[in-house]
Fold:
Amino acid sequence: MALLGTLCITISFILSLYSILGSLISINLKTEGLKISARWSSYLTFPVISIGIFLLVYSFVTHDFSIKYVYNHSNLLMEPIYTWVAIYAGNEGSLLYISTVISLGSLLSIKSLQKKIPESVPHITIIMMGILSFFLGVMLFLADPFSLLEFQVQDGRGINPLLKHPGMFTHPPLLMAGLATISIPFAITTGMLISGNYTDKGTEFIRVTTLIIWLMLGIGLLLGSWWAYTILGWGGYWAWDPIENVGLMPWLVLTALIHSLIVQRRRGMFRLWNLVLINIAFVLSQFGMFINRGGPVVSVHSFAASTLGYIFLTFMILSIIFPLIIFLWKYSELLNSRKIDSFLSKESSFLINNFLLLAITFVTLWGLVFPLFSELFGKEPVTVGTPYYNSVNGPLLLILILLMSIGPILPWKEGSTKSFIRSIKFPFATSVFCMIICLVFLSNNFLAVLAFSSVSLVFATILQEWIIGTRNRIKHFKENIIIAFIKLLNGNRTKHGGYIVHLSILMLAMGIIGTNFYQIKADHVLLKNKLFNFQNYQIELTSIETKNFADRIERVAKFNIYKNQSSEQTNNSKKITELEGSNALYPSFNMASVRAGIHSTIIEDLYIVPSEFLGDDKLLIRISINPFISWLWFAGPIFFLGAIFTLWPRTEKH
Amino acid sequence: MSHLKITSLSFMMFFTIFCNNQLNDNESRAQYLFDNLMCPVCDGQTISESQSQLSKNMRDIVRIKLDEGLTNEEILQYFQSKYGTSILSNPPKSGFYFTVWLVPIIVLPIIFLGLLFLIKTFTNTQKDY
Structure:
């Protein structure tokens, strides 16, 4: 089985090399037959590598511990369903997964581009296959998932306990797929540029692929946060950890790209700028791979850590130099003479949006590399933690939210101050009203009040657009309100899908503002059957149990939660729920997995982590109240919905 | 509901929110300090997050120092002198380490002004309609 697996990787490696060579020769000699065969061999890499991944799955299911990767990431006790997770749980397997995704992506994109821009396809094929052959080569020569174990064993080491969470079924594969497939738009633009056919014909395809990648990354990041919130037991969902940051940065750049691609599509502007953005996103995705696989910075979650850091660093440097050369070589073809008509226009607001998103990316990157930078200067390495990111990125995010309210109401080309004031009137009034309400009830933090009122400003802008649009339709077409609204949204999916995504971003913002400014945290020693008052809640420890499993010792604490019914001085508290928190120790991994007990409502979460078991009836808990945090998780489906709405193919009526 | 009830209720709400920040003052200071100290034996976790024995001990030390009446800065300095600057999750705002704050503060406004200038130069002054 192991031999067959390695064979699959070898064959697809040879296929990708052949495809590169064939395309190169066919471009120079203009041989049609070779061009077709090179293209088809690039398609073939996908089925071959899929057989490889199937063989790995088969080895996991049949517990073939003679394969080192299977030995390291599973054991006899593992439920078969976790095979899916085990595939990408380590360095070698995740490389195989990434290769499969890239070959599938290149198959789909090359196939559909063949109809649109056939003259650039050989060039695109070369770049796609070049990237794929890098990953296949690394596997083949340095990290073969099918390499054999040197000794005989009866059982494997088992899967990393932290990965046993529903979020882990989707978070890593989405994030990895997102990072890997950024190579597709990169290959398309660079290929078009080399072939000398940099046209707008590919723009729509690039936009769609970028949106899909952006969606995968976004959902992947959110699921990762959810996982961290429920299993790491910090009460936190985002720690500005290097591994988290390298996933966030490409997403931010892609967000900028999505906006400026709209300008390219509508007005034929920003072509050069978009190319730069795609290249930055690609380099950042390679940077992410490098940091993930043995980079020089420490992180909480380096699951795929390996000694391959320098190989990936080299590839990343190449991915900076290569596009730069192409860029300088073809620079003159990219220029166009279109100019911005007015400062008060969508075009310039998109530019400022791009600036802000890149600024956040830059701040994040700077914080990430600063420890290395300080070492470079012979200083003691220093940690750059949450306070830095929050205090620098926080204001930038706030301005970005403000821009979210102004951008959509600005017209293309040129806006007049008069109409701008007319359309901002209602949202502005709403946000002032919201500010007053907040000042009355939450007067302790002006920044938080400002943030909440900015959110309301954006919300009111979107609402206003929808109300006016629907009203106009009712007036002109005599439709009923629901049909009018649906038809309004359907009329311009890009725009209204964007608004839906904006709504989800507002929900994210609510969660972030709530937890950042109003989280309350405390440690407390609980005694059994004794009530502990915390804010409006009363917590009672009912039992502590120790359960022995084959792979872990689990200690479970159970709580009764009561809530004070009214704020008056009466003692009528009502039991609202029972919570359970656990701390599982995995001796073979020397690892603890903590699960918090969470009581979640729209307003706030009560979050209890059993942090130290001090005896049969004594327990140290970390307790916190996290306001609005559930809004983060509700934002996910809405974000997904908005992106899908934008992506949904238009049925041609004409 | 009478006006009196509404007023008293809103007052109560106001005060509960206001009081929240006054409650357990030492506790919230402890939590703040936990978030500002890194666990020396973990990868990228603060002692607030870490489950390691050393972090537990450090949390105890923080509480003892708080009870002794030390200020936040004094406690952070104590740990810094013992474990070095990398124990702080927040780079010190002095000396060389200030560059981490300085670079965004200087670079971003310059780029933004450059962008405004760019928009200005690229703005069409001759209307073609």
Notes: The mean pLDDT of chain A is 88. The first helix of chain A runs from residue 2 to 29.
